[in-house]
Amino acid sequence: MRLELEQEESVELLSLIVDRITQEAKLATKDRATVKRWRSEQMKAGSDAMKELTDKINADLERALQTKAKSAVQRADWR
Q1: Angle formed at CA 29 by CA 23 and CA 30, multiple of 5 degrees
Q2: Domain containing residue 17
């Protein structure tokens, strides 16, 4: 199984995470604005930072899927 995110999907994922963090964390209004400004200015689709984040997300997903596949093979099937 192969799962790979496109940059646009990574942007959406990052937006959801940042929105949730800024809503739930007890940040000052100024800090919340700073985080949202960072996301909108620096983490755009096509930017070098977003490309790097997408690559890291995809590498982590690949590693997690490989670990899960390995665990399934090693697990005794009588359980």
Answers
A1: 130
A2: 8-66
